[in-house]
């Protein structure tokens, strides 16, 4: 696994995301590194995936679609209508092209952090969950419950994260990309 220029990534992020988003990203990185040993995950890979997961978060829709087309990323009608949902896939492209990341596990974890996937390895599960519960997300009862669960059952934490996303999307009358439902059903089975 190639060494990552962490300070170079942070400099790049300062120019490409808001200060609040950078705090979130550093929170995901820190949480992922801290919790990796609890789940048998390599902390170096966890830290890299955490730091790189939102590289394309602030890219405008046209840029996201252009990069997706250039790299033949799989698009469907929901992703085409909501290009923001492909920021995860595009972040993996930037991680590879801009920062030379070639570890397939790290790139997969970055790709899966918004919608999940079936299946996901423990590294991808950890980043999916850390994105939802890192410290800047707050201290709601729901999040505290998720934090407790995530320390001993990563699959149950993935299920809860998917369910929280689904609840939010339904409450706000938003379109649901079905991959999060497939991820939720998979995590439900795995948590048994
Ligand atoms: N399955 C889904 N279908 C539609 N929208 C989704 C789905 N999952 C997440 N989203 C929305 O996509 C946006 C980005 O999600 P995410 O990457 O988790 O971002 P953030 O870090 O800002 O919470 C959020 O507004 C979220 O509500």
UniProtKB/TrEMBL annotation:
Alphabetized GO MF terms: bis(5'-nucleosyl)-tetraphosphatase (symmetrical) activity
Keywords, sorted A to Z: Hydrolase, Iron, Metal-binding, Nucleotide-binding
Catalytic activity: P(1),P(4)-bis(5'-adenosyl) tetraphosphate + H2O = 2 ADP + 2 H(+)
CDD domains: HDc
InterPro entries cross-referenced by the UniProt entry: Diverse_Catalytic_Enzymes (IPR051094), HD/PDEase_dom (IPR003607), HD_domain (IPR006674), YqeK (IPR005249)
Superkingdom: Bacteria
HD/PDEase domain boundaries: 17-145
Pfam family, one: HD
Enzyme Commission number, as recorded: 3.6.1.41
Name of the protein: bis(5'-nucleosyl)-tetraphosphatase (symmetrical)
Species assigned in the record: Synechocystis salina LEGE 00031
